[in-house]
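F.,

This is the one I mentioned.
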């Protein structure tokens, strides 16, 4: 019996579509629509049963408006424990609502999203990606593996975590594996839990050392601010929870390595974009802030399967788009379906980076939600989006440098595996 068959058997029939989600992965939403007699481009809500309870799948601008309406939706325990446990950590902001959520979000805005923080990050990612390009001249590299380390070094230094590259690299890899393995049953998932425990202990220790003066992280850094952060009760967060939120300020930046592997794939499929990006780098003298590289990165984020959907619970009974939503019912936003919704995007399945040229604020595009939707400051949208785009665009700029050769072999991906990425990770070498 296959692993997936074993999972389905163990789950049984009571969970209904939960077993199908495990089996279908990123194909689940469209297969669900087909099973309900809906066309692929039909954005109508879909009612189904998930984990034995009613649920409604929504997408598009209207779906975003509903899902990110904090007056109607709440997040506490909406994400199943096997996902939220290893990925986010116990008590993390992702499962909070109302006053507690807003207070913590304000701190995330301060340490991750603020423009000054992003500017402080840019030279760090520039330096790390330059070092990666140098190594590609000496040996065959791997875009996924190498960016896990490069992104990890950059974001850990940015967060105020002390240590040499040798000290930081293992933690970057462990944080990367948590993302890699949370959905991979059973071995990868088990290791993700193990690394969650390791990282929680490590991060709590950093918080305690910062509080005791053994570490003196820079003012405004994530380590400094989470160590001093006080909850709505006026008390310091316990060290473990503060460490979890420190990780949640770091880990999403490392997770972008999955997008980096997809960027390598798209550069092989669409090499015509390389010249413009290479010319920009030559003119600017930097890997960051290049318009064509940023546009390419945004299109990679739009089309690449990463987070397939996100859940919330309805706070009350209400009617929406002809559907009765009951209090406590799961409402699930279709991330990939929204990013490729025919009613929202011209030629939605075509890779077309130029659609983002001249767009100053991609976050303002309501149906563009690779890292969540709504308002960053007041809602559940990921505050690490600016950092993500910065490091991905820097990677695209690096991959377009003269002499960089991306191996076209084995760049397909398994759409039934969550999370997924190109199988090879993107083999690369510099002449």
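My design for it:
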């Amino acid at each position: 019996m296959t692993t997936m068959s074993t999972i389905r058997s163990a789950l049984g029939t009571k969970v209904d579509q939960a077993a199908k989600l495990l089996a279908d992965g990123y194909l689940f939403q469209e297969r669900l629509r087909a099973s309900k007699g809906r066309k692929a481009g039909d954005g109508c809500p879909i009612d189904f049963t998930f984990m034995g309870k009613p649920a409604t799948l929504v997408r598009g601008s209207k779906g975003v408006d509903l899902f990110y309406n904090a007056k109607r939706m709440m997040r506490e325990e909406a994400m199943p424990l096997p996902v939220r446990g290893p990925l986010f950590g116990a008590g993390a902001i992702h499962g909070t609502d109302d006053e507690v959520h807003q207070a913590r979000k304000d701190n995330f805005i301060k340490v991750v999203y603020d423009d000054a923080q992003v500017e402080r990050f840019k030279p760090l990612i520039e330096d790390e990606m330059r070092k990666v390009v140098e190594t590609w001249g000496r040996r065959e590299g791997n875009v996924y593996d190498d960016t896990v380390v490069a992104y990890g070094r950059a974001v850990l230094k940015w967060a105020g975590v002390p240590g040499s590259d040798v000290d930081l690299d293992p933690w970057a890899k462990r944080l990367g594996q948590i993302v890699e393995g949370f959905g991979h049953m059973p071995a990868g998932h088990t290791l993700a839990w193990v690394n969650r425990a390791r990282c929680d202990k490590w991060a709590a220790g950093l918080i305690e050392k910062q509080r005791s003066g053994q570490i003196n992280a820079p003012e405004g850094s994530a380590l400094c601010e989470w160590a001093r952060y006080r909850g709505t009760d006026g008390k310091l967060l316990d060290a473990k929870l503060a460490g979890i939120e420190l990780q949640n300020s770091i880990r999403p930046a490392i997770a972008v390595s999955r997008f980096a592997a997809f960027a390598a794939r798209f550069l092989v499929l669409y090499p015509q974009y390389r010249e413009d990006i290479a010319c920009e780098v030559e003119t600017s003298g930097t890997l960051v802030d290049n318009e064509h590289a940023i546009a390419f990165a945004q299109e990679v984020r739009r089309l690449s399967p990463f987070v397939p959907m996100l859940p919330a619970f309805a706070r009350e009974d209400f009617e929406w788009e002809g559907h009765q939503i009951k209090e406590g019912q799961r409402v699930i936003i279709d991330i990939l379906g929204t990013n490729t919704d025919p009613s929202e995007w011209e030629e939605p399945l075509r890779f077309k980076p130029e659609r983002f040229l001249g767009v100053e604020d991609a976050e303002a595009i309501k149906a563009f939600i690779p890292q969540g939707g709504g308002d960053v400051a007041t809602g559940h949208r990921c505050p690490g989006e600016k950092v993500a785009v910065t490091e991905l665009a820097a990677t695209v700029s690096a991959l377009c440098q003269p002499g960089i050769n991306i191996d076209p072999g084995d760049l397909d991906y398994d759409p039934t595996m969550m999370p997924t990425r190109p199988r090879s990770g993107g083999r690369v070498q510099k002449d």
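Strands lie at 46-50, 53-58, 73-74, 141-142, 309-314, 318-320, 323-325, 330-334, 404-406, 427-430.

Talk soon.
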